[in-house]
Design brief:
The complex is a heterodimer of chains A (about 325) and B (about 500). Chain A is an alpha/beta fold and about 325 residues long. Helix content of chain A is about 40%, strand content about 15%. Classes of the chains: A alpha/beta (about 325), B alpha/beta (about 500).
Chain lengths: ~325, ~500
């Protein structure tokens, strides 16, 4: 029997989730613009406030509140790249993050560890972090690595550097890590440069993306601003991970939580793009509900998945790569 | 601030699965036409062959069977005659289930032969008492919407299993029941039993409290009993649930697309037979199709493909505007462990997002052979979580909470705001899954595992749950009917 090709029928390339209609995503966008314009965001860093001022925001240096005209936000959304290549150490480890391409990474940052040899549940150490990175490195369907835990056996003020050394030397995959503060950031960049050969090579193929979190509701603390600005200045991408606790630091209803978190992320995006236009920016979310009966952050609840699914949809609306909690 | 409501923006009523475009569903539909028209269906019942013939189908006769070729107009008409909305009537009217598109309910897996004893934790053959006990547990669980007989009574004479099953079930639930029938005669007796519980055959006809499971054999075969039970159900006015189990790579093509086509052809051929036998007979589009794991030679119901096939078929059922009853949540693990949890979560979520009316599969292990109480209880908890997830995120003014956001401002606290107190009941709540801190968890549970706590819950239900009461005389009358039927079967065998 002859079966000729069918002319132009519409196909789905796979299964996907219907989360929100375009109208609904637009609604969240409008609500976010309203919050950014009328409520504003608290910005702790004076350097950042100056950058916001220069970018066209309305700043109040006394209360450290920054308010955003809609055009400033829209401009920043347009200038951030929609495709981000998460470089590994070798070109074959590179992963393209864009639109609907789905990849996985591990959780970070844990503070406790189940010892695989003794079964004991204890504080994590630098050596544990090395082992964990090695295991994740071997897993085919975990495309990038986040430093999984912290090195409790190192002093807090240099822990991020130790974390970077331990984790990044045990994987060839693209790495996500929070450099914590301005003392450690340059050293971590030096570690990356040592791994790839030089700072120039690092700029060409950045193997690390900084992660950083605003504080809900609507606060950009000092170190957060600095990480966003330093990433932009050194040519590294930044992954801003919203961490609203629905019911604790944002409204119980997920709709309101999405608005709060979106406001925090977009205000960080303005800072990133105003420091250096075109800096790769990843829209992150680790938001979950606060169980108001147990007073715990319930990362295992269905709502965590629902928020993450909605965030992924929002990020697509903004044409930004996304990084959301799940699992 | 005044927020006047917006005029007609497009909203979603919840999260849903985008599986196929309309064009793709048409593609499956047309491919199915070709199979029904050109390849045909093997039918082993003479009576059914007559009915197909009378309905306009072409019959090619062979020694002990016939190949039925169904013209597309017959398929279209019959699919259209089957009712669009079905209410699964229940003995307890509060448990009536409306099977409209996208209303999602859950049920256990059906027809297992083993169970894990909740007290001794040993695996053993299921008895009639187990069938009764499992029914009582499912009756108590809000998360289970309808009752599929979870195990077959394996301790009763051959030919009487389905009659014993339904007696055990009727005694222990007020919910709508899905059961298979050993023979047309057994189905008659089953209807008699149900009639005893609702006050007569007329009442049963008006509110049929059970539906009849019928299974074509893949590929493309309707065995004698399946045909005869369909015809008998039509005569009795009982709805049928048509459940092929194609094994992709074994009894259907190794590609999922081809499996969907033959599965669809099998369901539609039964719908044609049912509608030709009785126009307007309620037909439920069902599936437990999956892949044959070609390395192990087992039907892998814990595979992602199980979820994909069944979610796709739920979409196909919606395309025909028929109620659906598809697999989701089954497991290949041998014990209620992490594997069984992962497998439940993936396929049950997929089928639920697809909008299947009943997602069946809770409680089952070992490729569908074994049922477990702890698994039923744990799955019920997960079902509640899935029900939360498919509700999606509503974006009303109250939920966007813009005025609250203004009021709290940057750096403020939501936890103490009156809006949080008012809204906290909208959050998901767990009973069995633990959300406490590690120290609180240790203090409250003493480290007892979720599986142990789930068995305890099941045993507690078994001891304390009383199902919706039957008329006083019903249990005795049912027992008399069953005994008489046992005798009848024995006589025929002699």
């Amino acid at each position: 029997m002859i079966r000729r090709i069918k002319a132009g029928i519409q196909r789905n390339s796979g299964f996907s989730l219907n989360v929100m209609t375009d109208d609904e995503v637009h609604e969240i966008h409008l609500a976010t613009l309203e919050v950014l314009r009328d409520v504003g965001v608290f910005v702790e860093s004076e350097e950042a406030i100056e950058i916001y001022d220069g970018a066209g925001c309305i700043v109040d240096p006394k209360t450290k509140t920054v308010k955003f005209p809609a055009w400033v936000v829209e401009d920043a959304i347009r200038s951030a790249p929609s495709t981000f290549v998460a470089c590994g150490r070798r070109p074959q480890d590179d992963v393209i993050l864009q639109d609907n391409r789905v990849t996985f990474t591990n959780f970070g940052e844990g503070i406790r560890f189940v010892d695989p040899y003794s079964g004991e549940h204890r504080d994590s150490t630098k050596a544990d972090l090395e082992k964990t990175a090695l295991v994740i490195d071997s897993l085919e369907y975990v495309e990038t690595v986040e430093r999984a835990m912290c090195s409790h056996d190192k002093p807090p003020e240099v822990q991020a550097i130790h974390n970077a050394e331990a984790s990044m030397t045990h994987t060839v995959k693209h790495h996500w890590l929070c450099p914590v503060d301005r003392n450690q950031t340059p050293k971590i960049i030096d570690i990356c440069a040592a791994i790839v050969g030089s700072k120039e090579k690092l700029k060409e193929r950045p193997i690390l993306t900084f992660t950083t979190c605003p504080i809900s509701p609507l606060k950009l603390p000092q170190h957060h601003c600095e990480i966003v600005m330093d990433a932009a200045a050194t040519g590294l991408a930044v992954n801003v991970i919203g961490m609203a606790l629905s019911g604790g630091s944002s409204p119980v209803h997920l709709a309101g939580t999405l608005v709060i978190q979106n406001s925090e992320i977009l205000s960080s995006l303005v800072l990133s793009q105003s420091t250096q236009k075109g800096t790769p920016f990843v829209y992150g979310s680790s938001s979950c509900p606060m169980d108001l009966r147990m007073a715990t952050a319930t990362v295992g609840s269905p709502e965590t998945g629902m928020i993450s699914a909605a965030v992924a949809r929002l990020a697509r609306y903004y044409s930004l790569p996304s990084f959301v909690a799940g699992g | 601030m005044k927020r006047i409501s917006r005029s007609g923006i497009g909203t979603t009523a919840g999260f849903g699965l985008a599986a196929f475009s309309r064009d793709e569903l048409d593609t499956i539909h047309y491919a199915t036409f070709q199979i029904l028209q050109d390849t045909g269906i093997k039918v082993l019942s003479e009576n059914a062959l007559e009915i197909f013939h009378g309905g306009g189908c072409e019959i090619e006769r062979f020694e002990n069977y016939g190949i039925v070729k169904i013209p597309s107009y017959v398929v279209e008409e019959c699919a259209f005659w089957a009712p669009r909305t079905i209410v699964y009537d229940a003995r307890n009217p509060d448990d009536d289930f409306i099977a409209e598109p996208n209303r999602v309910g859950f049920s256990t897996f059906g027809g297992c032969i083993n169970l894990i004893d909740p007290v001794t934790r040993e695996i053993r053959r299921a008895t009639k008492k187990d069938c009764a006990d499992l029914t009582r547990v499912c009756d108590a669980l809000n998360e289970i919407s309808v009752l599929e007989r979870a195990v077959n009574a394996t301790d009763v004479p051959e030919g009487t299993v389905s009659v014993h099953n339904i007696e055990a079930i009727l005694n222990n639930t007020g919910k709508h029941i899905f059961v298979g029938a050993d023979s047309p005669r057994a189905l008659n007796v089953m209807a008699e039993l149900a009639a005893v519980c609702v006050g007569g055959m007329d009442r049963l006809r008006k509110r049929p409290i059970f539906s009849v499971n019928v299974c074509p054999i893949s590929p493309l075969t309707l065995p004698t009993n399946t045909c005869e039970v369909i015809v008998e159900a039509a005569r009795l006015g009982l709805g049928i649930m048509i459940m092929p189990m194609s094994l992709s790579g074994g009894t259907s093509s190794a590609t999922l697309a081809g499996t969907l086509v033959t599965h669809n052809a099998e369901v539609l051929s039964c719908i044609v037979l049912a509608q030709l036998a009785k126009k307007g007979l309620p037909c439920t589009y069902a599936s437990t199709s999956t892949i044959l794991d070609l390395r192990f030679g087992t039907s892998a119901i814990g595979s992602p493909e199980y979820g994909m096939i069944n979610a796709a078929l739920a979409k196909l059922a919606q395309y025909y505007r028929l109620p659906s009853f598809v697999g989701g949540g089954a497991s290949d693990s041998k014990v209620p462990d992490i594997q069984s949890g992962y497998e439940f979560a993936l396929s049950a979520t997929m089928s639920a997002l697809a909008g299947a009316n009943i997602v069946f599969g809770s409680g089952v292990l070992e490729q569908g052979l074994t049922i477990d109480y702890a698994k039923i209880i744990m799955d019920a908890e997960m079902i509640r979580m899935i029900q939360i997830a498919i509700k999606g995120i509503a974006l009303t003014d109250e939920k966007l909470a813009m005025d609250v956001i203004h009021e709290v401002g940057p750096g403020g606290a939501y936890i103490t705001h009156e809006h949080s107190l008012r809204s906290m009941r909208s959050q998901s709540q767990t009973k069995l899954f633990d959300r406490r801190t590690r120290s609180d968890w240790m203090e409250v549970t003493k480290g007892k595992t979720i599986v142990d706590r789930a068995y305890e819950t099941a045993i507690d239900i078994l001891q304390n749950h009383n199902p919706y009461p039957l008329p006083d005389a019903a249990p005795g009358e049912m027992s008399r009917i069953v005994k008489a039927f046992e005798k009848e079967v024995k006589m025929i065998k002699k």
